[in-house]
Structure formats: structure tokens, C-alpha cells
Input
Amino acid sequence: MSICRSHFGQNYAGARDNFIYVYSQDNDSAYKQADRMVLARVAKDLITDRGAYEFFVRVDEAGQPHWTKDIAGRGAAFVHPGRCYRSGISYNAALKRLLGRRLLFRAEGPTERRAVTAVL
Output
């Protein structure tokens, strides 16, 4: 698992809430692709407390996210079978959007890589 956090500026000054969000490809190895990306969050002042983390499960019909303390109950934040790998997300204050960067592979194999940026 290759853990990344979303960036909201120095000292998280641009964050919309008191949480730090981290995400990763859903694989035990940081060096292997996965089918999905998973998302977790923790209050800024509890980042060293493993028991304080919550894991994204799903978004309901009303558009509300659901979280669980049980890592085994985590759901997918993003699905792209066999193509989820190391990524990066940063907040662009001027655009008021998260910008995501994904490392993609060509069909020929994992040695041929290219980065793609998408607005989330």
C-alpha cells in the first residue's frame, strides 16, 4: 500500500474540515497495481492514534459519505480494474477543486508509465 495524503496548503490551511485525508491503491504492496483506490480520514490532532481513523465505505443516495472504523469494511473511492497505482491529490484554492494525478500504465507493461492529471 502506498499511502498519500491530499494537500490543502501549508499547515492544511485550505482544508474544509478538521480531517486529514489519506488514500492508497488497495494492495498490500506499494509496488503493485490494484483494482481500486481506498480513502481514510483522521482528525488533524489525532493523526498518530490508529484507533481514530475512519475508512470510506460509500456515498448514499442523498450524496452523503459513509465511514467505518473497521478497515475490513472499507469501500472503493475510485475503481479502475488493474490500473490503480501511486497517485497524488492537491487542492487548488483558485479553482476550489481537488486535482488528482495518477500514474497510468500502457498495455505493454508496467515499465512504460505516464502521469495524467484529472479534476476531481
Observations:
- Residues 9 and 114 are 25 Å apart (CA to CA).
